[in-house]
Amino acid sequence: MSSKQADTTLAGGDVLSVGRLADASGVSTRSIRYYEEQGLLESRRTQAGHRRFAPETIDRVILIQRLFAAGLSSREIEPVLPCMVDESARTSLLVDVLRDHRERLAQEIRKQRETVRVLDEVIEEFDTVRHRR
Predict the structure, then answer these.
(1) Which tens digits make up the pLDDT trace of 56-105?
(2) Can you state the angle between helices 18-25 and 29-37, rounded to 10 degrees?
(3) What does 78-120 look like in DSSP terms, one character per residue?
(4) How far apart are CA 83 and CA 85, in angstroms?
């Protein structure tokens, strides 16, 4: 086995180094290490201590990125992620957490719209330049 093969393969099949996982998923190696620290990803270690990930981890990283883009925190993602990647583990928790997050966002949007409305009133009231015309 060449050293290049040893870097990407462990007993039991093909695996990815953190760098190859980063390239394949479009995520930085730092993010992947963070996801692992937060319990969102699991890796095996070589005898030298290097991380190795299963190929299906690529899809999991992309899913984690989508959830972060949707505004969820790693604490919110961690309990629902197993339900998302394993249909047999799916419970109402998944949809409940996502709906709760969506409702919090909708409430924040309503608050922001009200803030903009009040600010528009104040601007209108104190826009002396426009009132002089």
Answers:
(1) 999 999 999 999 999 999 999 999 999 898 889 888 888 998 999 999 99
(2) 110
(3) HHHHHHHH-GGG--HHHHHHHHHHHHHHHHHHHHHHHHHHHHH
(4) 6
Tokens of 40: 């969102």
For 45, list phi and psi in degrees, rounded to 5. Answer: -120, 140
Q: What is the pLDDT of residues 107-132, one digit of tens each?
A: 999 999 999 999 999 999 998 776 66
Residue with tokens 């937060």: 38
Neighbours of 72 (CB within 10 A): 18
Q: Amino acid identity of 18?
A: V
124 SS3 class: helix
Which two structure tokens, joined as six digits, stand for 75?
Answer: 């604490």
Alpha carbons 65 and 84: distance in angstroms, whole number: 13
How far does Cα 26 stand from its chain's mean position? 13
**Count of all residues that appear for the chain in the document:** 133
Joined together, the tokens standing for residue 49 give: 């201590």
Number of H helices and E strands in the chain, helices first, is 7, 4
Q: Please tell me the distance from the alpha carbon of residue 51 to that of residue 7, in angstroms, as a whole number.
A: 10
